[in-house]
Prior knowledge:
Number of domains of chain A: 2
Oligomer: heterotrimer
CATH class of the largest domain in chain A: Alpha Beta
Radius of gyration of chain C: 21 Å
Mean pLDDT of chain A: 79
Largest interface: B-C, 68 and 70 residues
Structural class of chain A: alpha/beta
Largest sheet of chain A: 5 strands, mixed
CATH architecture of the largest domain in chain A: 3-Layer(aba) Sandwich
Low-confidence stretches of chain A: 1-45
Structural class of chain C: mainly alpha
Number of domains of chain C: 1
Number of helices of chain C: 9
CATH topology of the largest domain in chain A: D-Maltodextrin-Binding Protein, domain 2
CATH superfamily of chain C: MetI-like
Number of strands of chain A: 13
Mean pLDDT of chain C: 86
Radius of gyration of chain A: 19 Å
Distance between the termini of chain A: 20 Å
Largest sheet of chain C: none
Shape of chain C: flat
Number of helices of chain A: 12
Amino acid sequence: MTVTSTATRYRRFAAIGIAGALLTGGATACSSGGSSGGSPQPAGSGGVSPVQKVLDNAPVASAADMPAGSVAAQIKARGTLDVGGTDTSPLFSFKDPTTGTYSGFDALLGEMLAKYITGKPAVQHTQVTVATRETLLENHTVDVVIATYTITPKRAKLVSFAGPYFDDGQAILVRKNQTGIDKPQDLDGKTVVTETDSTAAADIKKFAPTAKVLLLDTNDECLQALEQRRADAYVLDQSIVGGDALQNPGKVKVVGSTFTVEPYGIGVPKDEPAFKAFVDNWLRKIYADGEWTALWKATIGAAIGGTPPTPPTIGSVSGS
Amino acid sequence: MSSTVGSVERALFDTPGPRAIRRIRMASVVAAFCLLAILGAALVEFGRQGQLAGDQWALFTRPSIIRFLAKGLTSTLEAAAVAAVIAVPLALLAAFGRLSRRRWTRLPSAGYVEFLRAVPVLLLLYVFLLLLPRYGVNVGAFWMLVLPLALSNSAALAEIFRAGVLSMDRGQFEASLAIGLTETQAMRLLIVPQVLRRLAPALISQAIYLLKGTTLGYVVSYTELLHQAQTIGEYHNIFEHINGPLIQSYIVVLVVFVAINASLAKMARVVERRQVRRYGRGPVAGFTEDFMATDEATLHTH
Amino acid sequence: MLARAAGSSLAAHTGDFLHGILVTLEISSVGFLLALIAGTLLAIFRVSPLLPLRGFGTAYVEVFRNTPLLVLLLLMFFGLPEVGVTFGLLSSAILGLGFYEAAFVCEAVRSGINTVPPGQVEAARAIGLRHWQVLLEVVLPQALRAVVQPLGNLAIAAVLNSSLAAAIGNTDITGTANHVFADVVEPIPIYVGAGLTYLALSLVIGQLTGVLERRLVIVR
């Protein structure tokens, strides 16, 4: 739910046509064991996949950053980082059902954080949904949630957010032959599908008060509903609907540009302020040393091309 | 679900004469033709839309995919089994509480059973997912699925147990009191073992409802069979450009459930028949048969 | 545009809740009516002398009773359009629920058929009634009256099961609760209220069933 965004320009790069193929290969990464980083995709000349290179170059925290008794030190002692993520978000965190390996921006980010703390990218994945993320953090089932998790004041009452680490925004997906829908206001009187409890579910009505909202559970169901003409438009984060448009270029297209800002944060339990600051510092570090940009290039960039965006400013969003 | 053809059904079928036999044969052929025609038309349309294409289905013969689905099935069975283990004692407690002569055990038990039978499991699930965590009660995806299932099914089971006890010959109970057993002893030593044994078929068919109920795990992202199938559908839609394997995934799930549940139902019928042989068509046997015919009515789960 | 206005109050959603109750009533009542008709027809199939009809009845019951309703609804909603048949949100839920419950209605009616004393059937045949006349005029009316209570329980089950319609996007009571929760962070009144509404609906149906049964029951 709710996914990502990458900046924009999906249509432009969809036209390149090879994007889909790149997605399968380039964005593959991140096995939970962390050693291989998923199916290796040899990067041109070198034998090491871009994903593996990102992991190899990722920083490791100094002992001074993790005082005894701190959450980070406990995780290091345990040896693995418990990450709440999704299995089904193409560009951000996707589990290959046949191999069990994860790929995508969020998945790789989780492994980088694991390496920062424990020295190796060892991640224990727990599947989360929009509805379960807060709960799993509150009861400490997971250490962090990295799941295209939009920072909102409502959610910030329940959990803390490190970041933001990515700016996404909502976009409109329509059927290929659809005309007359270019901006959110055009959705008035139309049937709009989105995922249950996504930020879009609440936002659509603000832009198009008379739109009829249809809530379904997964991206695939929403896409299917659009293709089957049960809805006139599908509104969700650009990174999701953009991914859909890439996969189904003959059937659907993204129209207009993003009309909201969805800043993604790393969810941290509310009662661990020191750990949140620790994660924030790590994000600052990878923003500064170019690792974040390398991460973008190895995952989203490999799928859709284009120039990497500038990482957002830590703490710039209310709730973070 | 009665295995034996009822007496009225037999009477309705009274041995037909030669003309009736001819008519029945003709009508059978016509009916069979119509049914096959409808089925055929549906299949043709399905194929015309490309849903029968080999690559849509070949997927489900890959060992890795089968393993992936098997993992989901294991989780499904696990959730159902644990829910059953919790539900049975709760149900016994509630049933005997409700049968008790003491008001202070009868009323709460009745309230427990009636309330839980009247609330959808899905809503109970939301209570565990959204409401309880506010009060510091966090149980994780597995228990968020299992506990609501167990609670809801314990209420349904309690009613089965209670009906089973009520159908027992009261004389047994009175006789045991007369020889000096306490009420509790009489229940524990005499009534419960008999009721449990005689209700075996009903209890087996209860398992069917538990299994079906586990599909609600999608709400809490418990990776049961349906969830795994959805992941496969989505994965191949995205990465392999096969259109709509979601539907094939659903059909595979449906077939697996029907296979397992139909076997359970068959097992219940076999046990039922054995009981009838052993105890005759006594009060419980008859009860069980009627109950199983309408078990959904008592159980309210999916 | 960070997100949602956190200020919306529950009271603003009263209309939504009433609408949700209407949708639940619509899905469960029309779905149950469909189940009554289809289920009785299936029961007739299952006691028919025609082997193909009996086979169809048996197969139908085996498949639909053993399938999780959720899977059925998903197939109905996302599967049928792939073969060129598209039903709306509400119709998909009604049809899915109706076809599912029909299997149970069929078995209830069939057990009701078996409560009719065989002597009546023999008498009816003796005065020259045909098979279908015996069934429709003698057996079925009594069979249905004998299973008022189980059918009432199935009606309650229909109401509770209709909550799954939310999974295919319907704004019934459960779906409305999810819609409102997207807007107002107050899970307790929302979900407890929804639970009590289901409880009230069940109690009302239970009462109605009781009244009906007292009127219709055949004391033997």
